[in-house]
Amino acid sequence: MKLITARPSPFARKVRALLHETGQTGDVELVETSTVPTHSNPQVVAANPAGKIPALLRDEGPAIYDSRVICRYLDARAGAGLYPEARLWETLTLEAVADAIMDAAVLIVYEHRVRPPEKVFDGWADAQWEKVARSVKGVNDRWMSHLGGPLDMSHIAIGCALAYLDFRLPDRNWREGNGALDDWFAVFNTRDSMQATTPE
Ligand SMILES: N[C@@H](CCC(=O)N[C@@H](CS)C(=O)NCC(=O)O)C(=O)O
Q1: Mean pLDDT for all residues in the chain
Q2: Which residue from 30, 96, 109, 187 has the fewest beta carbons nearer than 10 Å?
């Protein structure tokens, strides 16, 4: 199998961290690429018409995307139990929160990197940050007992989302007022799967 990926992408990182956690790194070749909304990479489009990373090219069957589908597929393939039946809806909801943080953060990055400077709308980027800040606070206030439990996909997704904020938006300071989540992340980020997939 081949994973269309990009080292900075937090969505692709979810998949790569899962590969580490489930012992499947040797089964998937990483194909590094890059793409932005204004210049979709043809290699990415060939796999995913939306032109988004990650996409997984399987040896049998069509390419699959997006990150949530790929993670669920690879978890099932390994029988790893990262989507535990007993906590399935909580796990999926918390993974969705992580993806929402990533979506909003990526849009802030695009606002400053992709849009011509005279068209940048700071108020819009700030509104995206409000989505990030509310979501991070929601995790800190309501989800710490889940994050303190056995590893599941939502832990990996939240870890990748917070690491992306540190990587791309360090000045926005997600840690303020979120001490419990900060403490959790400091430990989670030392896992081999996180250390092996740091963004560049
Ligand atoms: N919901 C998608 C989001 C993927 C996504 O937004 N990826 C970004 C890179 S971090 C991308 O490919 N952007 C290119 C574009 O929007 O055209 C997923 O979970 O895989």
Answers
A1: 97
A2: 187
Element housing 126 (H / E) = helix 122-142
Atom number of ligand 1 nearest to Cα 50: 17
Of 11, 108, 168, the residue with max ligand 1 atoms within 8 A of its CB, to mutate for a pocket test, comes to 11
Q: How many CB atoms lie within 10 A of CB 41?
A: 16
User: The tokens of 76 are what?
Assistant: 């099932």
> Ligand 1 centre and the CA of 52: distance in Å?
4
Cis peptide bond prior to 66, omega within 30° of 0: yes
Atom of ligand 1 nearest to the CA of 70: 20
Burial 141-163 (b: 16+ CB within 10 A, else e): eebeebbeeebbbbbbbbbbbbb
Q: Say which amino acid occupies 155.
A: H
